[in-house]
Structure formats: structure tokens, C-alpha cells
Amino acid sequence: MSRSVLIIGGNRGIGHATARAFAQRGDTVAFTYRTDGPAPDLVMDGAMAVHCDITDPEQVERAFKEVEADQGPVEVLVVNAGITRDNLLLRMPEEDFAAVLDTNLTAAYRLAKRATRSMLKARRGGRIILVSSAVALKGEAGQTNYAASKAGLIGFGRSLAREIGSRGITVNIVTPGLTDTAMAAALPKERIEKIIGDVPIGRIGRPEEIASAISFLASEEAAYITGAVVPVDGGISMGH
Ligand code: NDP
């Protein structure tokens, strides 16, 4: 059965692979983009592109309205957009801490709240998947802001799962390890090599590998999974 899916930050990287995975399952897919124009391959495949900066509540409201007008209430929400502003704590300006929390955590609150309201109204259950990070579990020097925001998503998602589970809405959190996208490409080569050295599977993840876990959590088969933290990280966070 085709569902109405909204991928936040679906233009590139993990979000792009996720939009492709849902489209391949036959779902009706909308995705947001912000900086560049929408990904042409997704549009060609019939996905709906919506411009949205998730730090702006008005743009979030407008994006939901556009998607609802086109494909009905959102039944699956994937909160994937995220940023980094890495620095050691003593060198980290307060605006870099705030910007990362604002995009990665406060915007997730805004998006999940908007989606939850319409899912409850539609009374057809729903799926919310939050993209966190292995860094939320194990910490990472230079990423106090990012780790705080991604760990915040876990507490947020689990609490929301308890609030709305009885209404057939599940909330799960995926924690990717280092994945081959622009975000990882921005890291120094030595840091990438050091991280890969700690990954039991011995390589960086592919965006499609994160997308397949997200797609499973959104499926009917995953109806009894909620509040789960699902690592897709080659084993790097094992034991954390
Ligand atoms: P990319 O940098 O490739 O993509 C980030 C996405 O977030 C883009 O689509 C970008 O949109 C969007 N975005 C950022 N800020 C905003 C905003 N204010 N409003 C709307 N959209 C925004 O990253 P990845 O694909 O690698 O990351 C996806 C998610 O996975 C992130 O949450 C990240 O933290 C997480 N993750 C990534 C890992 C990795 O190693 N790559 C590891 C662990 C977690 P646009 O390009 O249009 O500006």
C-alpha cells in the first residue's frame, strides 16, 4: 500500500538515498531541499520537492501544507536534516553550539510536533524516524554541540514514542556511523582513516545502508518496534 512519506533533507546524502528507497517501494514521496535546487533524479521519478529551511517555523508549516495538499496527511516522517560545526569546546563560539542545537534538535521537535498533530487527526497511525548519530552514544572530541543535539534526539524520540504509541504511531531513532556523504567528506583524511580503523566492519557506511534501516522502521513489519535506537554503523558503537 502506498503511503504519504516526507523526507526532511532529502536532496542529498542519506536523505537522498532514503527518498529513493521509499520511491522504489512504491510510496508517494515528498522531500525538502534548502541550499540548491531539488535533486533532479528524484523529481524525474515523481517525488515532490518542497523548499524548506527547518529552522523557520513558517517555512515548516508551509512545507507541510504543500505536501498535504498534494499527497494527503503525512504518514511517514523522516527527520534527516542535520549540520555540524565542529570545534573543541574551549574554541566553540556560543552561536555554533546554538546553531547545531537549533537545526538538529529544536527543528526536530517542530517537525515531529507538526506531523504528530496530523497523524493523530487522520487516525491512521504513522511512523516517525529520527536520524541521530553514533556520536550520540560514544561521544567525539570536537563535537560537543553535535553529540548533545543527537543525544537529545534519543531522549526526545523515546519520550514521544511513549506519548503516542497507543495511537499506532511509532517513533524510532537511527544512529549511523561515518557514512559516505558530503558531511563525511568535510572531515580531514586522517580523521576518516582513524574512525575507519575503529569500525569492526572496516569501512565507511553507504547512504543506501542507512536508508534501508529507515525504510524497514517505516514498514508494516516494524509495527511493534518503537522507541528503539538502531545503530547502522559497522559496529563502531557496540557496547555503548
Ligand atoms: P549532508 O550534509 O549530505 O546532508 C544534510 C542535509 O540536511 C541536506 O539535505 C541539507 O539540505 C539538510 N539541512 C541542513 N540544514 C538544514 C536546514 N536548516 N533546513 C533544511 N534542511 C537542512 O549530510 P548526510 O546525508 O551525511 O547527513 C544526514 C543526516 O545523517 C544528518 O542528520 C547527519 O547528522 C546524520 N549523520 C551523518 C553521518 C555521516 O557520516 N555522514 C553519520 C551520522 C549521522 P541542503 O543541502 O539543501 O542545505
What does this structure look like?
This protein is α/β, with parallel strands linked by helices. The protein has one domain: NAD(P)-binding Rossmann-like Domain (Rossmann fold), CATH 3.40.50.720. Helix content is 46%, strand content 15%. The protein has 9 helices and 7 strands. The protein has a 7-stranded parallel β-sheet, sandwiched between helices. Helix 2 (40-44) links the parallel strand 2 (28-33) and strand 3 (48-51). The mean pLDDT is 97. Bound molecules: NADPH dihydro-nicotinamide-adenine-dinucleotide phosphate (NDP). Residues 9, 11-15, 32-36, 52-55, 80-83, 103, 131, 133, 176, 178-179, 181-184 line the site of NADPH dihydro-nicotinamide-adenine-dinucleotide phosphate.
Number of domains: 1
Supply the number of helical segments.
Answer: 9
Distance between the termini: 37 Å
Class of secondary structure makeup: alpha/beta
Strand content: 15-25%
Bound molecules: NADPH dihydro-nicotinamide-adenine-dinucleotide phosphate
Given as residue ranges, the uncertain stretches (5+ residues, pLDDT < 50) are none
- The overall pLDDT, averaged over residues, is 97
- Say which CATH homologous superfamily is assigned: NAD(P)-binding Rossmann-like Domain
Query: Largest beta sheet, briefly?
Result: 7 strands, parallel
- Coarse morphology: globular
CATH architecture: 3-Layer(aba) Sandwich
Radius of gyration: 17 Å
Q: Helix and strand string, N-terminal first?
A: EHEHEHEHEHHEHHHE
CATH class: Alpha Beta
